[in-house]
Amino acid sequence: MKNSIRIKLFIVLTFFTCMIVGLSWILNTKYLETYYLEKKEDLLIQYGKEIEKSFKNDVEDISDELGRIENTLGGSIIIVSADGETLYHTSFQGRGGNGFGKMGMGIPLSNKGIEEVLAGKKVLETFEHPKFKVKFLVHAFAFEGNNILILETSIGAIKESVEIAKKFHIYIGLIALAVGIILALWFSKRFTKPIVELNRVAKFMAMLDFSKKYKIQDQDEIGQLGETMNYLSDQLDATISELNTANEKLREDIEKERKIDLMRKEFISSVSHELKTPIALIQGYAEGLSENVAEDEDSKNFYCEVIMDEAEKMGKMVKDLLALSKLESGNTTLQMEPFLMDELIEKVYKKYQPIFKDKNIHAVVQKEGKNFKVIGEGSKIEQVLMNFINNGIDHIGGEKNITIRINSSDEMVSVGIYNTGELIEEEEMKKIWDSFYKIDKARSREYGGTGLGLSIVREILKLHHSKFGVLNRDEGVEFWFELRKGD
Length: 487
Description:
alpha+beta, five-stranded antiparallel β-sheet, five-stranded mixed β-sheet, 11 helices, rod-shaped
C-alpha cells in the first residue's frame, strides 16, 4: 500500500497546492504594497493629466470634476497660481500658510520637490506631514501659465489596506489549502479508481478467469485501455477454450488410439485363439486322410465332413469379422427410410418356422399398440433380429419357448426377443456385447457360434442411435432394442 499510486498522486497534488498557496502568500507579502503604490502613482499621474487638460484659468469651471477626482482618489487637490495665490485647496487649509516660496510650509512638498516644480519638472514623491507624521504620496507639476497642480493621497491608508489584505490572505490560504487537500484526495481517488479496477481485472485474467470485465465509463485513454483489455480477455478466453478443446480432443484421440491398439491386440489374440481349434482339427484330419488312417469309406467320409464343417465355421467367422470391421470403421452409411417393423418381424418369423419346428421350439409374435412404422435401414434391422433369434435358439432351455414382442409408444417402437433358458449373471451382462466373448465356450462350439453376433448387433444399433440391452426375465432372457417412429 505504501507504493500506491493513489497515495503518490495525493502527495504530489497536496504539495502542489501548498506550493501555490505559499507562493501566493510570499508574493502578496513582499510585493503587494509596492504594486499598490505603483498603481496609486499611475492614478495620480493620470488624474493630473485630466486636470491639466480640463483647466482653462478658471477653477470654478472644473470644480465639480475636481470634487469627483478627490472622492475617487481619496486624497486632496491643490492649485496654486504663479504669484503664490491658492486657487483651489481642500484638506490643507490651515497648514500654516497659503503661499508658494516663503509661504511653502502649507504645500505638501519637500524643498527639493518645490525647486523641481518651479524648474518646470513633474514631481512624484512621498511627503510626511510635520505634525501628524502621516505619509502622503504627492504628484506636482506646473501647467497653464505657470500654475502649480498638486495631487496627494495618504499612504497610511494603503499600508492599512495591504496589512488587511495580508491577514485576509492567510485565511484565504488556509481555506484554499483545505479545499486543495480535499480536492487532491477526491481527484486521486477518482483518477486511480479505474486503474485499480483494471488491475483487478488483470489479476483475474492472470488466474485464467475471463468472466470479469472492465466497465467503460469514459472514452479517454483509460477507457480505451479498458476496452482493449476487455477485447484481450475475450480473445484469450476464446483461444484458451480452443486450446482446451483441442487438448481434450487430442487426449480423446490418444485414449482412442490406445484402446484401438489394445483392441487390436485382443482381437489378434481372440482370432488366433478361435482359429486355433478349427485349424488344428482340419490339419489333424487332413493328415489322417493323407496317411490312410481311415481305411473304410465311412471313416473317410467322416474325416471329410469334419474338415468341411470346420472350414465352413472359419468362413463364417471371416465373414462376420469383415462385417464387424466395416461397421466399426465408421465408413458405413445407412440408407435410412421408413418401414413397418411388424411386417419385417413377420417376414423373419416365417423364415425361422422350419427351424423352430425342427428343434421343437414354441415361437410366437406378440403385438401391443399400433402404428409400427419406424426409421432405419431394413436390411440391417433384419440382421439384428436374426442374430437375436439365433442367440435365443442357441441358448434355449426349459420349455423351449421363444417370444418376439413388439410395442408401440408415442415416439418409439420397442422390440424384444425372449427365450426360456439359463439366466445371465449380472457381471456378464456388459461383456456379452464384446467380440469373441462366450458365456459357455463348450456349448458355443457345439452350435458353431463365433462370438461376433452380438458385437455386430451392437454396432448396427449404435449407427441407428438406438437404445438396446438384455434383461433376465422369469425362466429366461430377453434382448431388446428401440427405434424412433417414422412419419
